[in-house]
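Weekly structure sync, notes
Attendees: PL (lead), two postdocs, one rotation student
Agenda item 3: pending single-chain targets
PL asked that the sequence for the first pending target be pasted directly into the notes so everyone works from the same version. It is reproduced below exactly as submitted, 421 residues in total.
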Amino acid sequence: MLTPDYLYRITEGAEDIASQLHANILQKIIERMMIRIGRGEDYLLTATDKWQIEVLQEAGYLLEDIQKELSDKTKKQVKEIQEAMEDAGVQALQWDDKIYQAAGLSPVPLLQSPALMRIMQRNYEATAGEWRNFTRTTANEAQRLFINQMDNAYNMVVSGAVSYTEAVRDVINDVSEVGMKVNYPSGYKLSIESATMMIVRTGISQAAAEVGLARMIEHGVGYALTSSHMGARPTHQPWQGKVFSIDWDTMKQLKPELFTGNEELPQPDKKYPDFVESTRFGYVDGLCGANCRHSFSAFYPGISTNPFEQYDSEENRKAYETQQRQRTLERRIRDSKRKVQNLQTAVDNCKDEKLKFELQQKLDRKSYTLSKQNKAYKQYCKDNNLKEYAERLKVAKWDRQQAAKAAGASKRYSISKGGTA
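Predicted structure, written out during the meeting:
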């Protein structure tokens, strides 16, 4: 079993790598954009064919840069996923093995079990493969975003729809708003960081679950205990922290790869609720499904104890809603930090003084918004007795120097509006 806190934190390394990738790609896009549109209106208003040729040439250089970046981050990410998987497998069985030892059994350590190691390897390859799949299209998406935004800026200025400075501000804003998203067939979109978090957490959770199940099959265990935590999804709250009976015939349909066909497994115990039916284990919205922080372990009635607290449903619901609001505030802060970074990149690479002044004003205003969001986050945590999660506010490349620049920009904006420094 893996604890909810462990599953919360296990994705931090993978998220950090994804954040670096996201920040670097957007920086490269904006730097290339400013080469094309940051030199002044006269430079932008060239002949259409010349403009298109130069944009496509620049897009080719951008694609090469991003492909190199993806190659570097993929190597790091695959290594991170493998290490996280190995650690999770060891952690999960440390908990479970104590239960078997209390029942008088001597389970084989993970690293000495070829069958369990094959399960971990299979899940590692699936998780790493999923990450590779969505990053594989990232370079082309970034190139497409660059070309489309260059065309938008050119056409808006040439048509007289907006001024040169307005056009540049608009495309910089559009790139910052869109960012690099992972598009799912359902139409749902996630940032690279959020998609990575979900993939890695779900992959690790499912790997630990399959290793745990394999060991239960090996020892003929018929009961499972789920973990619990305050603020669980309302749909998960009814079954968390409880003991269930496993119908192994149903489990064979869900996880046939875990069985050899020679196992002697107990029949379901009607005194306990059914494991799969109650928790929806094996389904995307259930136990060990997408982004779930619950886990489970073997349980021996009369020998094992249940250490998990039973939470009042209304109390849990309020905690869930409060924590969801906290996550929303954290996402807004991260989003604002990225936009400040993108604007800073645009300012630093702008050659036209009038445009640079207007971009700096936009940067000051966004920095002021970030300052207000940080204060609101601290106050919300204080008002609701919540822990502030500094790690959930981090974005790649946001160091002390960047923070100091943003603080200075925020003060300038405040003073310009009649406030105080």
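Discussion points:
- The two ends are 51 Å apart (CA to CA).
- Residues 315-413 form one domain.
Action: rotation student to compare against the earlier draft before next sync.
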